[in-house]
Amino acid sequence: MAIADIVSYSHLAPSDIEALGAELDAIRREIEQSRGARDARYIHRSIALQRALDVASRMAILLSPSRTGRWLGIGGLAASKCIENMELGHNIGHGQWDWMNDPEVHSATWEWDMVGLSSQWRYAHNYRHHVFTNVLGLDDDIGWDVLRVTRDQPWHWRHLFQPAQSLLLAATFEWGIALYGLAAAYKRTQDAENKATATADFATKIGRQILKDYVVFPALAGRRWRQVLGAMTIANVLRNLWTHVVIVCGHFPDGAEKFTPESIESETRSDWYLRQMLGSANIDAGPALAFATGNLCYQIEHHLFPDLPSNRYREIAPRVRALCDKYDLPYSTGSLVRQFLLAQRTVVKLSLPDRLLTATSDDAPETASERRFASHTPTVPGDGLRTALRTLRARRRRLFPSAGA
Questions:
Q1: What is the pTM of this model?
Q2: According to the UniProt record, where is the region Disordered (predicted)?
């Protein structure tokens, strides 16, 4: 099932884990000390680009006499919302730009362009997800209480429908994020008055967003309000689909491991770093795709350094990968298509009860524990985790050519 002994699973000695943590701390210090004007220019230019694209796209939707122009407006507005949600809302909400002391670009003041409330999301995401990444019962991102993505989640008959549920969640992702934040706000307190306040704030944000996108803007179109209302709906759905794709590619592919609560009972900072490296997955991306994902193609680096500026992940990534080589650790990455298909395979496969699956609950592509190595003797003393996993895969292919489910 999930990993209970991270040290054993990692094939690293405690001294090696502490050395790894020290090297990652050094990277953090270097980036923190070098933050400056170019980083500020990056975020201000990103904001200016997003706002210009938003205005131009809305004007195209409202005023273009041709269907082609309106569709360009829809595509542009969807792109604008993706940039705002991921490169701006998500990263600013992490405090990546708080060091500038700019009241406009600050985690405490930025409210993003979606129905969810930023303050509720920040607690759910920055605390429950990033502090307890992939820890069962503590990280709400493990399937978002909707999808079964590890065998540690008991199978229920409703999971038979989860492939369809996954599609519905993708199309309505902003609403899923909103409810995710509200649920975390409820978990944060037992006080009924605080819960009522959270609900009221949640409803207010939803009301403002619906008024902006689905009432005021269509009303500006006069008799064409139905067309504009449809355009807004399509733009929001396109945004939802893209953000869903990016998020599942960083959290659900093979290699994004899960952990038991016992595994973090005496966790050090270096242990936390190691858990982030084992529990996250990247997307291979060039500069354009990286920007389109809010730099969340660098999910491993983001989980290691969630509050460092997102534009720095590209330069951090080769150094993290070099550390993986040095300590013989896996660096889970792949193309967007590959990572997405792996995530969907997990969603479809785990819709079935375990008795219909062939791989063991300790050694499956989506679910693993240190017990997967119980019958494995390293071919060379001192083999690390990456080598051990390669040996296991080769052995499994020889013994069970059709295994893997």
A1: 0.93
A2: 361-385
- For 86-139, the pLDDT digits (tens) are 999 999 999 999 999 999 999 999 999 999 999 999 999 999 999 999 999 999
Cα dist. 104→32, 43, 93, 109 in Å? 21, 11, 12, 7
| Residue with token string 């990692």 | 10
222-247: pLDDT as tens digits: 999 999 999 999 999 999 999 999 99
| Best CA proximity match to 150, nearest among 374, 396, 379, 362 | 362
Token pair of 223, please? 């008799």
- Do 134 and 142 touch, CB atoms closer than 8 A? yes
Instruction: Quick: pLDDT tens for 180-214.
Output: 999 999 998 889 999 999 999 999 999 999 999 99
Radius of gyration of the chain (CA): 22
Q: Please write the tens of the pLDDT for every residue from 291-305.
A: 999 999 999 999 999
The residues, ordered by sequence, that sit 6+ positions from 159 with a Cβ below 8 Å of its Cβ are 148, 350, 351, 352
- Give 334's strand partners: 283
Task: Give the phi and the psi of residue 155 in degrees, each rounded to 5.
Answer: -75, 140
Angle formed by the axes of helices 269-279 and 14-34, nearest 10°: 90
Closest by CA position to 171, among listed 243, 241, 86: 241
Burial of 371 (0-12, 13-18, 19+ CB in 10 A): middle
